[in-house]
Amino acid sequence: MDQAESVRTPSSWVVVGLDNGGTCNNATVLDATGQFLVDHLVENPSRVLDGPESAVEALADAFTGILELTRTPRSLVRAVGLDTPGPASANGVISSKGATNFNHVSWHGFDIRGALEARLGLPVVYNNDGNAAALYAHHQHFGAAAAANSSVSAIVGTGLGGGVVEAGAVIRGAAGMAGELGHVQIPLYGVLEEDQPVPRCNCGFEGDVESVASLTGIKNNLLPYWLARFPEHQLAGEPIGVAAKALRGYAEKDDPMALAVFAQQAKAIGKLFTVAANFTDPAAYFLGGGVVEAAPHFRQWFLNTVRENTDLRDEQKAVATFALVPDRDMAGSRGAAVAALNTVIAG
């Protein structure tokens, strides 16, 4: 589908969704009828490594660009949804310790939501990227019944993000850090091999979900162990970071070592969802991130393994859904737009 065929013009007032990442921003437009005006990635460089001023200007460029692409007058925009990687407060203030994408000292404690709001002169509604993807998955799956349902999402990437949605709304928490599912510590029985060291997370925890189910967990914890068991593997001679990124390609080809690593990740997420089942008892469990980008047979195997390792009661099994977060890389910007639309409608 070419760009001309995949872009619509607005039929009503709109909100804009902006997904800020370490490399690129992704933008979309959602009109008041619930229709997205683009069905493909629309990206520009995020410039986060250049510091806050450059990054906010890049977000403003993304905003202007998506309006031009969809031929949307600026006067029709009621609000802007923004998501970024965490950790950040509920109002979009980057952690005082920084973050993976915001490691320069000028980012520490920076109010990215407020800065973008001042730059654009429009209300900006903030979520972290895991919450935005979770919100989009929830609303896309339940549609008109979104407000009557709950869900939990695990988003596997460099870390493990996620979100908890109750009655159609993201649970934010007192400090804005609810839904940091990667740092939930899980029982490791049945996940690790008997002689496998307990994995450690960059946050300082031992045995949390991110220490297993993330690219960082593969690099720091899982792959060194499994390469010792498969010393003749093709990845044994590669730098560990290169090998970790290449591992999914091997898993798609049913490589035994790669499947052993990803089975541990899926089991860890199953343990996480078991906690959720006994805590919020959600109607749906969503899985997103890099595994969703994988070959269809592999991502279905991964989802099935997560489901098999989620211990539900019979009553829960009868009503619970397991599904992949839809629309892959667009989920963040679309979730940010949904949050903005909900805010406008709620007044």
Structural class: alpha/beta
CATH homologous superfamily label of the largest domain: ATPase, nucleotide binding domain
Helix share bin: 25-40%
Instruction: Report the CATH C-level class of the largest domain.
Output: Alpha Beta
Return residue spans where pLDDT drops below 50 for at least 5 consecutive residues. none
Q: How many strands in all?
A: 10
Globular, elongated, flat, extended or rod-shaped: what is the shape? globular
How are helices and strands ordered from N to C? EEEHEHEHEEEHHHEHHEH
Assigned CATH architecture of the largest domain: 2-Layer Sandwich
For the CA atoms, what is the radius of gyration? 20 Å
Number of helices, where a helix is a run of at least 4 consecutive DSSP H or I residues: 9
Structure report:
Strands 3-2-1-4-5 form a 5-stranded mixed beta sheet. The mean pLDDT is 93. It has helices spanning 52-69, 112-120, 129-142, 215-229, 240-252, 256-279, 296-308, 314-317, 331-346; strands spanning 14-20, 24-31, 43-45, 77-84, 124-128, 151-156, 160-166, 169-170, 284-289, 321-324. With 347 residues, the chain is α/β, with parallel strands linked by helices. The two termini are 37 Å apart. The chain folds into 2 domains: 14-122, ATPase, nucleotide binding domain (Nucleotidyltransferase, domain 5); 144-325, Nucleotidyltransferase, domain 5 (2-Layer Sandwich). It contains 9 helices and 10 strands. Helix 3 (129-142) crosses helix 9 (331-346). 36% of the residues lie in helices and 16% in strands. This is Glucokinase. Keywords: Kinase, Transferase. InterPro entries: ATPase_NBD, ROK, ROK_cs. Belongs to the ROK (NagC/XylR) family. Pfam families: ROK (PF00480).
